[in-house]
């Protein structure tokens, strides 16, 4: 049943890992780079590559998805929030990917065929959706991982076939298992970030608190307004302002803070960011998934400003819920709010401890470790099951509450105890008529007869049988699952 011999003639060769991202913002590519570094450090991986799927797409497609998104963020943020909420319904978009995306996917498919990966890691939902389609069509048989890059799980990331989903926190796993997904296919790892420096700078408890202000992420005029408000603070502090590659912004801020003497340090693009995160006492900036994760890993609490509606607002909600952040909704009160935080005895230290508690610095290393040691057969969610999951979500119910023909059941590989399919109970009828043995056990197998059966069964068999001619499975109805066990991060 294998379509692409992944390892070539040498069956003992190591793993070949392809990491697929999409350059909509920097976070997805930063997560991909972190996973790449983690893979490069493993002796069982022979080769690892990163591919930004937008970079090999047409210019029009790339601009629409990449630059177009930030045009909407800047000019009509309410539309971004509406789109986020609409796409949050799981499997709202079912079936084949749209023709335009499929046309732009040809270079990606070509790259996969040339590289012949044994594992594919997706740090954006676009390649994750494409990989599910290729897996079900029999084009690839590599292990597929979906790695989310925000603290909240958005339904757009959920695909019809994969080997593992990696989420940022335990609530994400609880959300997915409530939809009906098996717990053995969902892992809580945190968001992948670059390896932390071996020598960690020690914060000087005697020195004034240091603010690390991410001006480049907040944008020109807004960033200038944020820095201007810190000039009105009464508490003693120092500040490092990072402007990235925006030279014009750096010059504006340098002029603005010149009267403050050496209290401010203004930087352009810098490779010192990991050290700065550990030297600072408070971060001022946007709660992007990667920047927030880097701060938490460094034990650095955040002052949240100008979050993008949708994912960044939800990231901020989680950080505030955990006591590791405050949010400023008005530029005019930023200085006052930071002052209030610094003037309250012990508050900054409590926030630093909260950030340290929820930090996950080893997330990037956990992704290849769990994926390569996990099930070799994918989980397939049938179209009927997708409809059930969407309907349950729209009706604000969980999968275990469902009964009757539309309820969900799992097919479990008897040898590995991993779930290989999630389907409706009514879909079992055809399978049991054709594939039940004399004892009533269900054995999926290659069928050489000409008796027609549903295409959904063909998709399922093609994906999960691999080289085997048969696969005994156990049918398990969904029941109310016990609470999800904490995997190392606090629940939120």
TrEMBL record:
InterPro entries: Diacylglyc_glucosyltr_N (IPR009695), Glyco_trans_1 (IPR001296), Glycosyltransf_28_UgtP (IPR050519). GO terms for molecular function: hexosyltransferase activity. Residues 238-356 form the Glycosyl transferase family domain. SUPFAM superfamilies: UDP-Glycosyltransferase/glycogen phosphorylase. It is an enzyme of class 2 (transferase). Residues 28-193 form the Diacylglycerol glucosyltransferase N-terminal domain. GO terms for biological process: glycolipid biosynthetic process. Keywords: Glycosyltransferase, Transferase. Transmembrane segments: none annotated. One of its GO terms (cellular component) is membrane. PANTHER family: MONOGALACTOSYLDIACYLGLYCEROL SYNTHASE, MONOGALACTOSYLDIACYLGLYCEROL SYNTHASE 1, CHLOROPLASTIC. This is Processive 1,2-diacylglycerol beta-glucosyltransferase. It comes from Glaciibacter psychrotolerans.
């Amino acid at each position: 049943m294998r379509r692409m011999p992944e390892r070539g003639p040498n069956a003992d060769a190591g793993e070949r890992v392809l990491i697929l991202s999409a350059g909509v913002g920097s976070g997805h590519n930063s997560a991909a780079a972190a996973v790449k570094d983690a893979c490069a450090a493993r002796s069982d991986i022979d080769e690892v590559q990163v591919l930004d799927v937008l970079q090999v797409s047409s210019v029009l497609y790339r601009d629409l998805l990449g630059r177009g998104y930030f045009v909407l963020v800047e000019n009509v943020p309410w539309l971004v929030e509406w789109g986020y909420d609409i796409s949050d319904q799981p499997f709202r978009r079912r079936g084949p990917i749209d023709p335009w995306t499929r046309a732009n996917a040809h270079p990606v498919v070509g790259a996969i065929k040339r590289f012949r990966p044994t594992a594919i890691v997706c740090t954006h939902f676009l390649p994750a959706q494409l990989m599910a389609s290729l897996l079900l069509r029999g084009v690839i048989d590599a292990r597929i991982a979906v790695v989310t890059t925000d603290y909240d799980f958005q339904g757009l990331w959920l695909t019809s076939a994969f080997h593992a989903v990696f989420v940022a926190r335990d609530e994400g796993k609880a959300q997915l298992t409530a939809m009906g997904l098996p717990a053995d296919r969902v892992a809580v790892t945190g968001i992948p970030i670059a390896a932390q420096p071996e020598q960690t700078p020690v914060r000087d408890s005697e020195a004034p608190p240091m603010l690390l202000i991410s001006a480049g992420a907040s944008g020109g005029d807004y960033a200038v307004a944020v820095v201007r408000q810190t000039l009105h603070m009464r508490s003693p502090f120092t500040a490092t302002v990072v402007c990235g590659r925006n030279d014009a912004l750096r010059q504006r801020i340098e002029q603005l803070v010149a009267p403050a003497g050496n209290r401010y340090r203004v930087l352009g693009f810098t490779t010192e960011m990991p050290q700065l995160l550990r030297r600072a006492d408070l971060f001022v900036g946007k709660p992007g998934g990667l920047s927030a994760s880097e701060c938490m890993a460094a034990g650095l609490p955040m002052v949240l400003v100008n979050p993008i509606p949708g994912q960044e607002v939800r990231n901020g909600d989680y950080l505030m819920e955990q006591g590791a952040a405050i949010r400023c909704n008005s530029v005019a009160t930023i200085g006052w709010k930071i002052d209030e935080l610094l003037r309250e005895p012990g508050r900054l230290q409590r926030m630093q401890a909260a950030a340290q508690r929820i930090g996950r610095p080893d997330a990037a290393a956990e992704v290849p470790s769990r994926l390569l040691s996990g099930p070799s057969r994918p989980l397939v969610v049938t179209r009927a099951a997708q409809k059930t999951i969407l309907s349950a979500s729209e009706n604000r119910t969980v999968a275990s509450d469902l009964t009757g023909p539309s309820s969900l059941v799992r097919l479990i590989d008897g040898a590995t105890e991993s779930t290989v399919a999630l389907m409706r109970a009514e879909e079992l009828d055809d399978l049991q008529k054709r594939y039940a043995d004399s004892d009533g056990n269900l054995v999926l197998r290659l069928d050489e007869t000409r008796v027609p059966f549903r295409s959904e069964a063909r998709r399922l068999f093609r994906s999960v049988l691999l080289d085997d001619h048969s696969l005994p499975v156990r049918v398990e109805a969904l029941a109310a699952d016990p609470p999800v066990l904490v995997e190392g991060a606090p629940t939120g």
